[in-house]
Write a structure and sequence with these properties.
- This protein is of the alpha/beta class.
- The chain folds into three domains: 123 residues, Rossmann fold; 60 residues, Histone, subunit A (Orthogonal Bundle); 76 residues, Helix Hairpins (Orthogonal Bundle).
- Helix content is 52%, strand content 8%.
- It contains twelve helices and five strands.
- Strands 3-2-4-1-5 form a five-stranded parallel β-sheet, sandwiched between helices.
- α2 links the parallel β2 and β3.
C-alpha cells in the first residue's frame, strides 16, 4: 500500500508486524534511493538489546546508513515526544544532504506523531509513568481497559482493549493532568515533521501462516546468536520490571534460563507465542 504518488516522496514510511521483513525492505530501498534508514520502533531504540529486539545486525547496518538504533539507555524513560525530538535534527541532516529518509518500525504511535504532530499534553512525572507501567505488567491490557473505562470512558471507547501502550498512556495522562487524553488531543497539535501527503507508505502484510513460521525461525535464531547471554547481561543491571525495555519479548524468560529458573525449551516456546500475539496486535 502506498501514498504520495503525485511526485517524488519526501520520505518513505515502512510499517508492518514484527518479522514481516521491514528491515530488509528498508535496506533495499535505502540502497536504491540513496536513502537513510531511521528507526521508528520503540524497542529497537534501546542499547544492549540488539538481538532480542530484532534490530538489524551490524553487518546489515553497514550496508546503508542507519539512525536512532540502540541510542537510548534502557534505564531512561523515553516517550514519543523524546523520539520526535531526536528525529527532528536527523531528518534535517538527511534532507540537507539530499538523501531520502526511510522510516521503518512497528510502533504506530511513532508514525502517528511523525505524520500528525503531537497534542500539547503536559509532561507526565516519572512516578506516574512508573506506576502505570507496573500496573500494566500486573493486570494486562484488559485490566487496564477496565480501569480506563471507570476513569475515562471517552478514551476507553476509542481504544482497543488489547492496546497496552495506548491504554497505559491514557491512564498516565488522566492521572497526571485530571483531564482526558481526548481533551488534549482535541487541542491544536505541533506541526507534523513529515506531512502524510508528502510520504510514500509501504505496509507489509504477510500471510498469517508465513508470519508465524518466520517468527518461530527468528526466535530460534536469536537464541543461537546469543539472546540468552544478552538477556542475562540486561538482567544484571537490575532495572525495574516496569521499564519499557524490561518488557521486551524474551528478556525475562531467557534471563530465567541463564539463572537456571526455566528450561531453554520452555523459554523458546513462550517467546514464540508472545511474539505471535504481539504481531497480531500490530496487525489489528
Amino acid at each position: 500500500m502506498s501514498e504520495g504518488d503525485a511526485g517524488p516522496p519526501r520520505a518513505v514510511l515502512i510499517a508492518g508486524p514484527t518479522a514481516s521483513g521491514k528491515s530488509a525492505v528498508a535496506i533495499e530501498l535505502a540502497r536504491a534511493l540513496d536513502g537513510v534508514v531511521i528507526n521508528a520502533d520503540s524497542m529497537q531504540i534501546y542499547a544492549g538489546l540488539r538481538i532480542l529486539t530484532a534490530r538489524p545486525s551490524a553487518e546489515e547496518e553497514a550496508t546503508a546508513p542507519h539512525r536512532l538504533y540502540g541510542h537510548v539507555d534502557p534505564a531512561r524513560a523515553f516517550s514519543v515526544a523524546d523520539w520526535l525530538a531526536d528525529v527532528a535534527p536527523v531528518l534535517g541532516e538527511v534532507e540537507a544532504a539530499g538523501r531520502v529518509p526511510i522510516f521503518v518500525g512497528g510502533t504506530g504511535l511513532y508514525f502517528e506523531a511523525l505524520t500528525k504532530g503531537l497534542a500539547p499534553v503536559p509532561e507526565v512525572a516519572d512516578e506516574v509513568r512508573g506506576f502505570w507501567r507496573a500496573r500494566a505488567a500486573e493486570v494486562g491490557a484488559e485490566g487496564l481497559h477496565r480501569e480506563l473505562l471507570a476513569r475515562d470512558p471517552v478514551m476507553a471507547a476509542r481504544l482497543r482493549s488489547t492496546d497496552t501502550q495506548r491504554l497505559t498512556r491514557a491512564l498516565e495522562v488522566i492521572e497526571a493532568t485530571g483531564r482526558s487524553l481526548a481533551a488534549w488531543q482535541a487541542m491544536p497539535h505541533s506541526p507534523a515533521l513529515v506531512p502524510p501527503e508528502t510520504a510514500a507508505r509501504i505496509v507489509l502484510e504477510p500471510e498469517r501462516a508465513v508470519l508465524h513460521e518466520r517468527i518461530a525461525r527468528r526466535f530460534e535464531a536469536m537464541v543461537a546468536e546469543g539472546a540468552v547471554e544478552e538477556a542475562a547481561a540486561f538482567a544484571a543491571r537490575g532495572l525495574a520490571a516496569a521499564m519499557p525495555a524490561s518488557r521486551a519479548i524474551g528478556v525475562a524468560a531467557l534471563a530465567d534460563v541463564a539463572a537456571g529458573r526455566r528450561s531453554l525449551e520452555e523459554a523458546i516456546e513462550r517467546g514464540i507465542v508472545e511474539t505471535r500475539q504481539y504481531a497480531k496486535r500490530q496487525s489489528t
